[in-house]
Amino acid sequence: MSYIPIEKPMNNKLLGMSVILFACVIVVSNYLVSFRVADTHITYGSLTYPFSFLIMDILSEKFNRYDVMRALRIGLLLAFIPSLYIAESPSIAIASISAFLVSQFLDVVVFYHLKQRFPTLWWLRNGVSAGIAQCVDTFIFFHIAFLFTLPYYDVFMLFLFDYGIKLLVNILVDMPIFYFIAIKTCKKIQIFKKHKR
């Protein structure tokens, strides 16, 4: 039996839990992006940040676009003030929120477009939407946060290495988790409902 995604409304309890989890990932990532891994061009934020896209992609797979966009807007709003205080500098917080505003909405838009065009190709919508959005996000973030404080070579290398790590995390960690939570459980529910009839 092939899996066909079904969109449903999100209840308030799940909306609240998703928003809090999403906002926490953003705030933690904004803090960790200030620290490099073993004096390389890789930041610890690149390891946690992809999980924000995972959360939105799981919600986008299971629920309607209106509720997902609402969760996204509330989550970004909740993350903004703590990010200003926890980030190493205001420029990092502003860069992060600016990048998030563009990339997270882009991720949801691309995800739903691919979901509509190719409903059975879950890996395509999950991988491509997150890959494109994370590239845009990483580029915006490092250029706003560090363009006038670091040599451009360092800014570009930070972007390149950070994005490379995010892609690896997306492929090796996020996609399997997405499949298990958003696809496999839905397949079992669909099979159970079919047999119950």
What brief labels describe this structure?
mainly alpha
Account of the 3D structure:
The chain has helices at 12-32, 45-48, 50-62, 65-86, 90-117, 122-146, 152-196. With 197 residues, the chain is mainly α. Helix 1 (12-32) runs parallel beside helix 4, helix 3 runs parallel beside helix 5 and helix 3 runs parallel beside helix 7 (152-196). The longest helix is centred in the C-terminal third of the chain and has 45 residues, at 152-196. It is globular, with a radius of gyration of 17 Å. The model has no long low-confidence stretch (mean pLDDT 86).
Q: How many β-strand runs?
A: 0
Structural class: mainly alpha
The residue-averaged pLDDT reads 86
Share of residues in helices: over 70%
Give helix and strand order, one letter per element, not per position: HHHHHHH
Q: Rounded to an integer, what's the Rg over CA atoms?
A: 17 Å
Topology:
Layout: H1 12-32, H2 45-48, H3 50-62, H4 65-86, H5 90-117, H6 122-146, H7 152-196
Helix pairs in contact: 1-3, 1-4, 3-5, 3-7, 4-5, 5-6, 6-7
In short:
This protein is mainly alpha-helical.
